[in-house]
TrEMBL record:
Stretches the record annotates as Disordered: 1-32
UniProt organism field: Aspergillus minisclerotigenes
Keywords from the UniProt entry: DNA-directed RNA polymerase, Nucleus, Transcription
Keyword Nucleus part of the UniProt annotation: yes
GO cellular component term of the entry, any: RNA polymerase III complex
UniProt xrefs under InterPro entries: RBP11-like, RBP11-like_dimer, RNA_pol_Rpb11_13-16kDa_CS, RNAP_AC19, Rpo11-like
Compositional bias ranges of the Polar residues kind: 1-15
Compartments, as annotated in UniProt: Nucleus
Protein name (database record): DNA-directed RNA polymerase
Extent of the signal sequence: none
Length: 142
Protein backbone atom coordinates (compact mmCIF):
# COMPACT_ATOMS: atom_id res chain seq x y z
CA UNK A 1 0.00 0.00 0.00
CA UNK A 2 1.15 3.53 -0.63
CA UNK A 3 2.61 5.40 2.29
CA UNK A 4 -0.05 8.11 2.07
CA UNK A 5 -2.77 5.62 3.05
CA UNK A 6 -1.09 4.93 6.39
CA UNK A 7 0.05 8.48 7.02
CA UNK A 8 -0.87 9.92 10.41
CA UNK A 9 -1.36 13.34 8.77
CA UNK A 10 -4.29 12.03 6.74
CA UNK A 11 -6.26 10.76 9.77
CA UNK A 12 -8.98 12.89 11.24
CA UNK A 13 -10.91 12.13 14.36
CA UNK A 14 -14.67 12.24 14.64
CA UNK A 15 -14.28 15.19 17.00
CA UNK A 16 -12.92 17.29 14.13
CA UNK A 17 -15.80 16.28 11.88
CA UNK A 18 -18.47 17.12 14.45
CA UNK A 19 -16.84 20.45 15.28
CA UNK A 20 -17.03 21.50 11.63
CA UNK A 21 -20.67 20.42 11.25
CA UNK A 22 -22.32 23.42 13.01
CA UNK A 23 -20.33 25.84 10.84
CA UNK A 24 -21.41 24.00 7.70
CA UNK A 25 -25.04 24.02 8.88
CA UNK A 26 -24.90 27.78 9.51
CA UNK A 27 -23.47 28.35 6.02
CA UNK A 28 -26.19 26.15 4.51
CA UNK A 29 -28.93 28.09 6.35
CA UNK A 30 -27.44 31.39 5.13
CA UNK A 31 -27.35 30.06 1.55
CA UNK A 32 -31.00 28.95 1.84
CA UNK A 33 -31.96 32.42 3.09
CA UNK A 34 -30.25 33.99 0.09
CA UNK A 35 -32.02 31.57 -2.26
CA UNK A 36 -35.41 32.27 -0.66
CA UNK A 37 -34.90 36.01 -1.05
CA UNK A 38 -34.42 35.68 -4.81
CA UNK A 39 -37.50 33.55 -5.50
CA UNK A 40 -39.75 36.58 -6.01
CA UNK A 41 -38.53 39.50 -8.10
CA UNK A 42 -40.42 42.73 -8.75
CA UNK A 43 -40.18 43.34 -12.49
CA UNK A 44 -39.31 46.81 -13.86
CA UNK A 45 -42.12 49.29 -14.42
CA UNK A 46 -43.86 48.77 -11.09
CA UNK A 47 -45.91 51.49 -9.44
CA UNK A 48 -47.62 51.54 -6.04
CA UNK A 49 -50.88 50.12 -7.35
CA UNK A 50 -49.63 48.00 -10.26
CA UNK A 51 -46.71 45.61 -10.30
CA UNK A 52 -45.48 42.46 -11.99
CA UNK A 53 -43.69 39.81 -9.96
CA UNK A 54 -41.55 36.94 -11.21
CA UNK A 55 -41.56 33.73 -9.18
CA UNK A 56 -38.57 31.43 -9.71
CA UNK A 57 -39.18 27.69 -9.68
CA UNK A 58 -42.97 27.96 -9.86
CA UNK A 59 -45.59 27.14 -12.46
CA UNK A 60 -49.32 26.80 -13.01
CA UNK A 61 -49.93 25.10 -9.65
CA UNK A 62 -49.05 28.17 -7.62
CA UNK A 63 -49.96 30.65 -10.35
CA UNK A 64 -53.62 29.78 -10.68
CA UNK A 65 -54.19 29.21 -6.96
CA UNK A 66 -52.50 32.50 -6.07
CA UNK A 67 -54.41 34.37 -8.78
CA UNK A 68 -57.66 33.00 -7.36
CA UNK A 69 -56.74 33.98 -3.78
CA UNK A 70 -55.67 37.49 -4.80
CA UNK A 71 -58.81 38.10 -6.89
CA UNK A 72 -60.99 37.35 -3.85
CA UNK A 73 -59.64 40.61 -2.37
CA UNK A 74 -62.17 43.37 -3.25
CA UNK A 75 -59.35 45.95 -3.36
CA UNK A 76 -57.74 44.18 -6.34
CA UNK A 77 -58.78 45.40 -9.77
CA UNK A 78 -56.88 42.82 -11.85
CA UNK A 79 -54.66 39.81 -11.26
CA UNK A 80 -53.30 37.45 -13.89
CA UNK A 81 -50.37 35.13 -14.34
CA UNK A 82 -48.41 33.71 -17.22
CA UNK A 83 -45.64 31.22 -17.79
CA UNK A 84 -43.26 33.08 -20.15
CA UNK A 85 -41.80 29.91 -21.69
CA UNK A 86 -42.65 26.24 -21.07
CA UNK A 87 -39.01 25.20 -20.65
CA UNK A 88 -38.34 27.75 -17.88
CA UNK A 89 -39.60 27.34 -14.34
CA UNK A 90 -40.69 30.95 -14.02
CA UNK A 91 -44.12 32.38 -13.41
CA UNK A 92 -45.03 36.05 -13.87
CA UNK A 93 -47.88 37.50 -11.83
CA UNK A 94 -49.44 40.91 -12.55
CA UNK A 95 -51.46 42.71 -9.86
CA UNK A 96 -53.36 45.97 -10.26
CA UNK A 97 -55.16 47.43 -7.26
CA UNK A 98 -57.46 50.32 -6.54
CA UNK A 99 -55.98 53.33 -4.74
CA UNK A 100 -56.94 51.94 -1.32
CA UNK A 101 -54.05 49.44 -1.23
CA UNK A 102 -50.83 48.63 -3.07
CA UNK A 103 -49.74 45.63 -5.13
CA UNK A 104 -47.23 44.29 -2.60
CA UNK A 105 -49.85 44.27 0.18
CA UNK A 106 -52.28 42.49 -2.15
CA UNK A 107 -49.63 39.85 -2.90
CA UNK A 108 -48.88 39.34 0.80
CA UNK A 109 -52.59 39.08 1.63
CA UNK A 110 -53.08 36.59 -1.22
CA UNK A 111 -50.18 34.43 -0.04
CA UNK A 112 -51.53 34.48 3.53
CA UNK A 113 -55.01 33.58 2.29
CA UNK A 114 -53.62 30.71 0.21
CA UNK A 115 -51.64 29.38 3.19
CA UNK A 116 -54.79 29.51 5.35
CA UNK A 117 -56.71 27.63 2.66
CA UNK A 118 -53.98 24.96 2.51
CA UNK A 119 -54.12 24.61 6.31
CA UNK A 120 -57.89 24.01 6.17
CA UNK A 121 -57.47 21.40 3.42
CA UNK A 122 -54.72 19.66 5.41
CA UNK A 123 -56.83 19.61 8.58
CA UNK A 124 -59.89 18.22 6.78
CA UNK A 125 -57.81 15.61 4.96
CA UNK A 126 -56.15 14.49 8.20
CA UNK A 127 -59.49 14.26 10.01
CA UNK A 128 -61.04 12.22 7.17
CA UNK A 129 -58.01 9.93 6.97
CA UNK A 130 -58.10 9.32 10.72
CA UNK A 131 -61.84 8.59 10.60
CA UNK A 132 -61.32 6.16 7.71
CA UNK A 133 -58.44 4.40 9.49
CA UNK A 134 -60.57 4.08 12.64
CA UNK A 135 -63.49 2.59 10.69
CA UNK A 136 -61.17 0.14 8.93
CA UNK A 137 -59.67 -0.90 12.28
CA UNK A 138 -63.21 -1.52 13.61
CA UNK A 139 -64.02 -3.69 10.57
CA UNK A 140 -60.87 -5.76 11.05
CA UNK A 141 -61.48 -6.31 14.76
CA UNK A 142 -65.11 -7.40 14.17
Amino acid sequence: MPASVHSQDQDQSMMDATAAAPQEQEQQVEQEDVLEEKRIIVLPGATETAASFQFEGEGHTLGNALRYAIMKNPQVEFCGYTIPHPSETKMNLRIQTYDTTNAVEALEKGLDSLMDLCDVVTDKFTASRDAFNASEADKMSS
